[in-house]
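Quarterly update from the structural biology core.
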Amino acid sequence: EDTWDSMSMRSTGSHDIIYKAVKVRDEDFLFRSNYKNTTSDPIGGSVWFPLMTSAANLGVANAARNYAINFAMNRKPTGASDPISKIPHVREQIGRMESKLIISKRALFSFSEDWENYPESQPELFREIGAIKTKSIDSAIEITDLAMKIVGGVGLEKSRPLERYFRDVRSGLFNPPIEGRALEQLAAAVLDLPFLE
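Predicted structure, tokenized:
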């Protein structure tokens, strides 16, 4: 049923799926959670969604970056001999996109690898997930904004994918943890737990 009508999320196809007369065997499950089981891993379960959201939004930002770079390398204003990729402020904006994307991807990948490779450090790492997620989303939005500035008003045309990228990354702001909660968790980790010198 078409139940999902949220900006930046309509194309996810996250509508309700209703199954009738479907048999599911035990071996069909990849994983089972039990909401009544309070001994399950609350920390690990709270990490993968923010990481996935961060990765998805950085992927959209990467697509916006690619579109803007291709546009800049091929767009020649009327009467100009060179494409706009030769204009200093366009090059600066492309450099800003690259910088934000490199730093955000490195932080995300590094955190994910540490989480997988050092399970004994997961309680300490857990407090960082909010910062990783919020900064990834902020960077994704900043990158798509820069891409839109490079392309200009034509980027708002529905016929161009940049318009969709520009909208889609904004949904990450509202996926958990939202910025206020992430900042509160970081502050609590510093102010309410024993301080390490």
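Residues 43-191 form a domain with the Butyryl-CoA Dehydrogenase, subunit A; domain 3 fold (CATH 1.20.140.10).
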